[in-house]
């Protein structure tokens, strides 16, 4: 097994998969805590469907690299969801549902009408479940993922206190002068970036699992925001690396394997939390 792994690690695309997988997992875990605590977890699911539709548009328009246009459209939709959440006529969950279903349907429709691929079903399945995309990363996408991941982590660290404030008590934060709308906008944009990056790892339908499971797992044991953040990052990185390793050695789909490992991790932490009652610090 080790000889087989060593053989695979000689290939650049395998090394790219591990690097991108670890970086995306780290970014997803940081934002997942905020989304779970704000009860806004399904924004990841909604924006992932938007990203699928955006990618379909980029493919139809003939872009060789679909990530830039996908990123732009997803960020715009993240801002629209944020604005809709403040609209009394259209609630936040309703706006997510509209964008999610609409983007998924239109994306698949466009790919059917304008597709030049001989294996449309395979392309759609790969995009939705990330079965091969992480193993076909180019060096350009690798560099883009590294740059965007560094930006996401930097923003989280720089605005850590503000994100903490709007996560737990947005009304109080607004009362003491914090520009909550601005920081919510930051969070929405960063989430959109993470989701576009994660499409290469687990596919658009499984992104929510990558965001939610590490956060929920760490919450089973730790109680403080900082402890949960650190633990979530460690869990996410380990599960993604282990999932990629299993998928390479066993030949299973990458995205589904990572999510399966995340589920197993959550069950382990859930049992530990129930047995020991959590570590309250």
Automatic annotation (TrEMBL):
SUPFAM superfamilies in the cross-refs: ABC transporter involved in vitamin B12 uptake, BtuC
UniProt-listed InterPro entries: ABC_BtuC-like (IPR037294), ABC_TroCD (IPR001626)
Main localization, broad class: membrane
Key words of the record: Membrane, Transmembrane, Transmembrane helix, Transport
Keyword Transmembrane listed: yes
Subcellular location field: Cell membrane; Membrane
Gene3D superfamilies: ABC transporter involved in vitamin B12 uptake, BtuC (1.10.3470.10)
Topology of this chain in the membrane: Multi-pass membrane protein
Pfam families found in the cross-reference section: ABC-3 (PF00950)
Transmembrane segments: 16-37, 42-61, 67-84, 96-114, 142-163, 183-216, 228-251, 257-279
Family: Belongs to the ABC-3 integral membrane protein family.
Record-given protein name: Metal ABC transporter permease
Organism: Brachyspira catarrhinii
């Amino acid at each position: 097994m080790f000889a087989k792994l060593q053989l695979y690690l000689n290939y650049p695309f395998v090394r790219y998969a591990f690097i991108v997988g670890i970086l995306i997992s780290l970014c997803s875990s940081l934002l997942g805590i905020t989304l779970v605590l704000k009860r806004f977890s399904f924004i990841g699911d909604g924006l992932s469907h938007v990203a699928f539709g955006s990618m379909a548009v980029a493919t139809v328009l003939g872009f060789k690299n679909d990530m830039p246009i996908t990123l732009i459209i997803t960020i715009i939709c993240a801002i629209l969801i944020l604005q809709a959440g403040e609209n009394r006529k259209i609630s936040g969950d309703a706006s997510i549902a509209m964008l999610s279903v609409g983007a998924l349907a239109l994306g698949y429709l466009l790919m059917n009408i304008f597709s030049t691929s001989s294996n449309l079903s395979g392309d759609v399945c790969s995009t939705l479940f990330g079965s091969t995309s992480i193993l076909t990363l180019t060096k350009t996408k690798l560099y883009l993922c590294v740059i965007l991941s560094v930006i996401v982590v930097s923003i989280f660290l720089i605005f850590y206190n503000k994100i903490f404030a709007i996560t737990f008590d947005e009304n109080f934060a607004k009362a003491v002068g914090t520009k909550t709308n601005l920081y919510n906008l930051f969070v929405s944009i960063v989430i959109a970036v993470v989701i576009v990056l994660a499409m290469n790892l687990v596919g658009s339908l499984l992104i929510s699992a990558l965001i939610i499971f590490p956060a929920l797992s760490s919450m089973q044991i730790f109680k403080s925001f900082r402890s949960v953040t650190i633990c979530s990052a460690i869990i996410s990185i380990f599960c993604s690396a282990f999932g990629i390793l299993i998928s390479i050695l066993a030949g299973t789909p990458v995205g589904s394997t990572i999510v399966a490992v995340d589920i197993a991790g959550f069950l382990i932490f859930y049992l530990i939390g129930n047995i020991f009652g959590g570590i309250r610090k």
